[in-house]
Design brief:
By secondary structure, the chain is α+β, with helices and mostly antiparallel strands. It is built from 14 helices and 33 strands. Helix 7 packs antiparallel against helix 8. It is globular and about 80 Å long.
Length: about 800
Amino acid sequence: MALAGLTAAIASAEPAAVPAVAEALLSKPWPAHWITDATAPKSDYGMYLFRRVVRLAAKPERFVVHVTGDARYRLWVNGRSVCYGPQRCDPAAWRYESVDLAPWLNAGENVLAAQVIGYGDIAPLASMGQRTSLLVQGDTVAERAVDTGPDWKVFHAVAYRPFQADREKAHQFFAVGPGEQLDGTRYPWGWREAGFDDHDWAKVRVLSRGQPQGWGTDRDYWLAPRSIPLMEETPERLARVVRAEGVEVPAGFPAGGAPLTVPAGTTVAVLFDQGHETNAFPQLTVSGGQGARVTLRYAEALVDEHGGKGNRNEVAGRRLLGLGDEFLPDGGAHRLFAPIDFRTYRYLQLDITTGAAPLVIEDLHGVFTGYPFQENARFTSDDPELARIWTVGWRTARLCALETYVDCPYYEQLQYTGDTRIQCLVSLYVSGDDRLMRNAIELFDSSRLPEGVTQSRYPSNTLQVINTFSLFWVDMLHDYWWHRQDDAFLRARLVGLQAVLGWFERKIDPQTGLLGPVPYWTFVDWADQWPWEHEFGYGGEAPGAHTGGSSIVTLQYAGTLRRAAELCRALGHADLAAHYETTAAGLCAAANRLCWDESRRLYADTPDRKSYSQHANVMAVLAGAVTGDAARDLMQRVADDKSLTQATTYFRFYLLRAMKTAGLGDQYLAGLGPWRAMLDRGLTTFAEKPDPTRSDCHAWSASPVYELLATVCGIEPASPGFATVRIEPHLGALQHASARMPHPRGEITIALQREGKGIAAEISLPEGVTGTFVWSGRSVELHGGPQTLRLP
């Protein structure tokens, strides 16, 4: 059968590019008004359907509109989905999407239809809306007929209710919104199409006019154009049926188009495996089945009787416990149930109970969604498992990149700085697209508290501050400077940079020279020795965070100061750079004096020298508190010392960076044990931490994708803006490796082959780009274009 819903829309014409916004809409109040349902409260859950019928004398060549909604909307034109949004944001810069509707419009009658959800007090934490509402603005006079105002109609779709499925049984922290229950007997089927009778729909309540950012007073929202592309929407099929109870599933269902018929008076359960974790809008099409109840449940993994995940490929003796949606069919033909929010799953289960009529499941598939990153890089080698690490790591990165970067798609969908810094490097190296990174930097800058620190996650409708993540935001500025030439963007962030670093400077203990007690959540890592403290409501904190004297946080601050000094000097602020360098030197001196334990030849976590971790020693190397041969000797011992508090998946990014800084980059591949173990356990994305873990897909665990290019192949900027290149491979036990990656001025390619202790290299740099190739202490100058090198 023909695919319906979003899938059909995807197959239709797509706008070639995002249209520019009319200049008047950027500097004057919009003619269009926000609209809502007259009975819609600001704080209750509700789904609202909006319609506007317009007649056109001819099919237009151009028909641009600017559209946004609160909290989520999907816009349809003549039954075709054309836009989904808004981009995640805050009311100070509420984003709108600009779309040319001409491909979907016809001469004669046309229907614009919008579905808008308001989550009320069960909203996703990333949703910062004010009230359920819709805004559509025609770009010029030619499109003004569709402006939201009194000519629109609205229907409160009480057929929708929030659905929580197994949410409470999971005993986990969730920050995503609720599932949906749709009662088909109360739903206005066909409302998106021309010819639908909407005479009994209500008149809309007209609210304030749209207002551009920075204009007017007393605004619920200041409007700003969308700063990133629309999300990808690509149909994908479930890979296989892995278990069916109470019904025999036809061999062609669902991929082959054969329907699944569930007889009347039957209870069945069908478990599907997507084959890998995904983010997708489920699309369920049914006929008949009035009185039936169809529940869709989604999970990253199945669990055993004790709640353990074990090998993610194992099905026997395991059950699905997860988030879900529910559909109550009305008995009509070809009914499509498609939740407005995407779902994350590897496993999907249909639980069906039919009434007096049989139910025909005609189709079930997903529409993958995510930021439209392109995989413009590759990595190959003589270790086939590294190819799997690349594939799984890039999938992890993609599933954690939406309208913002997110920590995990299943549980939270929140943009945390700790994850985001790593994600930015992955996407810069693999895709070359820096727009989501710029968006993240701007959002965190907007999140700053008056005292200076950034919020740890943003957008977020609840306040959370992880003070160490504020330092990583400053490091993100340095990363961006090192990889992109964009001084104006960075200068606009200097106020925030100074605010963050000044906040920490005010926490330095004048007696010790270390950081004193630091308020808020001082998260370092999910190490076993730093468990969640239910009494205080935090976990992952190293010793000394609240009492003062933490070498880890002190040295992290010192390292960030040094990187900030480099950036500030490049932007013309030499005095500020000198101050940061002096402060960093004082912090490192204090850590060396008070936390270095000569008897153990290690940095202790605090001056009392009662606990020791990899983390403190990693930060000492990255801050430059220890350098040269001493750093190499230190990291060699730290990497092998199991008596230390060990870095988990997240912090191993910094552990391995410190080893590279200390001249031990060739040991990088030997440190990929945790990722190889995840592959052995059947994960198709990389998890938050070693089992037992909550999230099976966590952004910070995608770091090997970056390191295979930056460390193994050794491709890194040698100067700001990636103006020049340094290539210093660290092949470990590999005999050959090759890669390509995007560069701001083109593409870098490299092919490496060991020749005994020497190396043969074929390298191509973009025209006009120069660099250096380094191998075993020897260096060769590189020029733009292809070149072949041999070093003994």
